Amino acid sequence: MSVHDDAIRILRFLEEKGIVMGYGMKNSEIISGTGLITEAHDKAENFLLQGKYIEGGGGGPDAERWLTNYGVSYLEQIMSQRLPISINAEMILDYIIKSTSRPLQAVKRSDIQTALKLSDDQYDKATQNLLDFDLAEKGGGGASIGESSNDTYHSEGSLRATKSGRQALQKGFRDPQTSIQASQVFNINAPSNIQAVANAINSQIEQQIEQTISENDPEALKEMVSELLTGLVDIVRQDLNLKDQAEYTEAAATLQDEIQKNNPETEILQKWIARLAFLDHAFSVGEKAIALSGKVLPSILMLTKLITALLKG
Known about the structure:
By secondary structure, the protein is mainly α. It folds into three domains: 3-79, Arc Repressor Mutant, subunit A (Orthogonal Bundle); 87-170, Orthogonal Bundle (Arc Repressor Mutant, subunit A); 181-312, no CATH class. It is 59% helix and 8% strand. Helix 1 crosses helix 3 (38-50), helix 3 (38-50) crosses helix 11 (242-259) and helix 10 (218-236) packs antiparallel against helix 13. It is elongated, with a radius of gyration of 23 Å.
């Protein structure tokens, strides 16, 4: 699954648990509850923080995160375009496909429950969800996985993904029957007084950048790059459809990851800067690409100046 799909899983998990402002949850609990590996979680977390879908202080497994109002609204829009299956059903299908080497290979019930920490009730409901949508099928079995205190048994059985299930995972569980609401974009024209305020803010930021560059502090430079990237996402948020919003945020997060490396690769930096500047064809903005490029240009120039200083240092 993509970084964006992993991010949606985190949002769904936090919403299901009611983790909003005032009810933070540790990253370690989020990793455990979503079944994501640490690396996948960290990339998705960075994506969500950049887009302001979640908030929280610090970093690492003990850092707490919670949903923002924007994150809740964004999730509602995304879920209106996805198959109506539970997060546990998505996690089971994801696990089956990733843990098997052959398309028709089945995975034992006990292995799935152990890996995803699902109770019998959670597993049964999620499996039925997958069966109802023809995303998985039973793969046989017959052994038992234990005996409860009231002498009842749970059939071991096994589960395998169908062709529809594999396609659903590849497409991020998007519902093909749902109209693409995300195809709508907003008018990017802004009143002149708003533009004047933006110019004043840009002038102030430029002064801060020059000061930071003169101090030659790599960590301060990286922090300012991060702030600029967050600002870029905010600048174009209302001008992009949902899919492009997600991909633009992911591009900013990827550039941020590259900047954090000890030896960032110039070609990779150039690629993502070009994408953020709408100088390639990654986004479905059509003729608005030129206008959007002009809109982000001041920030892109400042970003380039900061990155150049970092590379020289």
